[in-house]
Write a structure and sequence with these properties.
single chain, alpha/beta, four-stranded antiparallel sheet, binds pyridoxal-5'-phosphate
Length: 436
């Protein structure tokens, strides 16, 4: 069924909504929606690793004992105290008054965008990046400038400095220094220090999206960018990856004056972060062994990351390159010259029963930068599924053998994999994309 338009309803939508660039993402979603696919596409945590029993105990305790549980409520002080402790794990010192609780990192970015960007103003993002920040800015129709990112070391700070030296003064610079989505990159500490210096020198505000900062595997992640400059860098964190995304709770760490402004802005959209979620989360952190939970999560995802890297080494062509993430949930692959990964996705779904997200979906300013790249999620599939799926995908990337005529009586068996029968390609749907 075609998507209803404003004309169908005779409702005049705001002008900016007509400039939607959803189509490629929508098509990807449609292609990857089949539950029978082995999916490396969406950036979801593994549901079997959610701390469900402990959260259920915490929720039960709150419902049984706390009369505030289902009432309107102020941002919970105890939860902010817990966030202060989490921030210490990221090398950031802050007070409860510098912590602002939000409905997920996504709302944090949306509110920060509203606070900082005047309609039509300039913002800088990485050439390839999670599009949640730009998505939330769309009503403001900003002028978007991009700087390149390296799949191993993240944002090119030199390129940002060149933009600023040329006179650009963006309202914000958005970056994901740890466990980058989609690149899997982590910015070295020297680059973090330089970025903080550059921000201070030119007086620009940086939004540090650290949604994956606590999901690190090798114990050598440097402190968060905010620890290098507590005035210019506004930090965004999330419980989605370390607890569960359904709890919909995230936070901002920022100077108190910023927190007060955010609070006023937020009242305009949803009054309070769900009181029950704040209380249950807080009770979980008070009563359950969170440090053990986090350690077991990191250990389980590290096994999956290693499985994916081993499988890529074993099954992908020598001409392909990929990142080796030390944090987060994604590996970025640069395919051999000439491969268009949006076209490859259609073949992968139809011929191998495997899905991923083609790089173009993350190309902030449109264009072709991500055309040869693809993002693989390793947090959700099991190690066995990872080996199987990467083997199937690798076959599609191997140079095709020349067709040699077979003797009479033989039937060719080239093409579809024996373990994955060809499947019909679904037509585009209109469901929203969800986490990416
Ligand atoms: C880099 C990045 N930032 C923010 C988010 C949104 O997180 P939340 O669930 O806290 O809104 C995501 C979700 O996948 C993400 O990948």
């Amino acid at each position: 069924m075609p998507e209803p338009t404003a004309a169908d309803h005779d409702i005049p939508f705001a002008a900016w909504t007509r400039q939607s660039r959803q189509s490629i993402l929508r098509e990807i979603l449609a292609l990857t929606a089949d539950p029978n696919l082995l999916s490396f596409a969406l950036g979801m945590p593994a549901a079997e690793l959610f701390p469900t029993p402990g959260y259920a105990r915490a929720a039960q305790h709150v419902l049984g004992h706390d009369p505030r549980a289902l009432q309107y409520g102020m941002p919970l002080r105890r939860l902010r105290e817990h966030v202060v402790q989490l921030m210490a794990l990221r090398g950031v010192e802050c007070t409860e008054n510098e912590v602002f609780i939000t409905t997920g990192a996504q709302q944090a970015m949306s509110l920060l965008g509203q606070l900082l960007v005047t309609p039509g103003g300039t913002v800088v993002t990485e050439e390839l990046a999670y599009d949640g920040m730009l998505g939330s800015l769309r009503p403001l129709q900003p002028r978007v400038l991009t700087v390149p990112s390296d799949p191993q070391t993240g944002m090119d700070v030199g390129a940002l400095e060149a933009l600023l030296a040329a006179g650009e003064r963006p309202a914000l610079v958005y970056t994901i220094p740890e466990g980058h989505n989609p690149l899997g990159a982590s910015m070295p500490s020297a680059a973090r220090r330089r970025l903080a210096e550059v921000a201070g020198c030119y007086g620009v505000t940086v939004i540090e999206d650290d949604a994956y900062g606590l999901i690190d595997y090798d114990g050598d992640a440097p402190p968060a960018l905010r620890s290098y400059d507590g005035r210019r860098v506004l930090y965004v964190g999330s419980f989605s990856k370390i607890m569960a995304p359904g709890i919909r709770t995230g936070w901002v760490v920022a100077p108190e004056a910023v927190v007060q402004r955010l609070s006023i802005l937020k009242q305009g959209s949803d009054l309070d972060v769900t009181t029950f979620a704040q209380l249950a989360l807080s009770a979980f952190l008070d009563r359950e062994p969170f440090a053990e939970h986090l350690a077991s999560l990191r250990a389980a995802y590290a096994v999956r990351r290693d499985a994916m890297l081993e499988a890529l080494d074993a099954h992908f062509p020598a001409a392909a390159r990929w990142s080796r993430p030390r944090a987060g949930m994604f590996v970025w692959v640069e395919t051999p010259e000439g491969v268009d990964t949006t076209a490859l996705l259609r073949r992968a779904v139809a011929e191998a029963g495997v899905a991923f997200v083609p790089g173009q979906a993350f190309c902030a300013a449109g264009g072709v930068r991500g055309r040869g790249g693809l993002r693989l999620n390793f947090s959700r599939p099991s190690p066995d599924q990872i080996h199987d799926g990467i083997r199937r995908l690798g076959r599609l990337l191997q140079p095709r053998p020349a067709v040699i005529p077979l003797p009479a009586g033989f039937s060719p068996a080239v093409g579809a994999s024996a373990s994955a029968p060809p499947r019909p390609v679904p037509s585009p749907s209109t469901r929203p994309l969800g986490p990416r």
